[in-house]
Amino acid sequence: MVLDYYYILLSAPCRGPMMVAKALGIELNLKKVDLLQREQLKPEFVAINPQHTVPTLVDGDFTLWESKAIIGYLVGQYGKDDSIYPTDPKKRALVDRFLYYDMGLHETFRAWAVSRVTLCKYCFIMPGTARYVSKRYLFFE
């Protein structure tokens, strides 16, 4: 079965479910949503997702948005074992720690950095701030 997936490519929350779908062998019918053109506000998209957010997944007559919920759904609905999302509580907690990391510090850094780079023509990042952000990202290495 092919699932419809509404997304924007540069969004980490959109890419997470895409990676999980690939790992599970799920084919996604990728449908880009251009937020700058306000496509998320078009009546046909609002009919699918009244909160007009991406990512949004449509699996037959079931529609879901929010990346973490989509990831959980894909694993629960299509996962053949617990290799991606363990059933052991301690192992699952370690996966959850990384799964939810972006809800705090990471998302704050990303939003700040993207706004500085894309919206501020003459802005620069202070060397101390750049080192701090780099150190936080190295945590994943």
From TrEMBL:
Classification via Gene3D superfamilies: 1.20.1050.10, Glutaredoxin
Domain GST N-terminal: 1-82
Pfam family, one: GST_N
PROSITE patterns: GST_NTER
Record-linked SUPFAM superfamilies: Thioredoxin-like (SSF52833)
Domain of life of the native organism: Eukaryota
A molecular-function term among this protein's GO annotations: glutathione transferase activity
GO terms under biological process: glutathione metabolic process
Name of the protein in question: Glutathione S-transferase 1-1
